[in-house]
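Hi R.,

Here's the chain you asked about this morning:
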Amino acid sequence: QVQLVESGGGLVQAGGSLRLSCALSGRTFSSYAMGWFRQAPGKEREFVAAISWSGYSTYLADSMKGRFTIARDNAKNTVYLQMNSLKPEDTAVYYCAAGPRTGLITPAQTKDDYYNYWGQGTQVTVSS
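And here is the predicted structure, written out as tokens:
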């Protein structure tokens, strides 16, 4: 059984940075493409970033480009989301997700129904 555990959330001032981590256990990490999503209060869950099994292919949502970076360390079974220049509108619960292995990130990996496994989420709050 795949388990995903996120960490690294917290309270940060606007303009600050956070790095989220998500550790996968129960299966071989490199068997999965990984994604990050977020959900703000009263809003639908939205795509943030995705990364292929090798880490060579990545994709970020337009509003995160230039500020966020996704990376993975297959030796540590962990995917990361580096978030810089944070804004109050980035406040949300951030979720990591694991889906079928792919070598190339396409629009399919931006949809939450691509992913089979989800973490419990970590809260990110950005104060103005």
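One quick note: The CA atoms of residues 34 and 60 lie 12 Å apart.

Cheers,
M.
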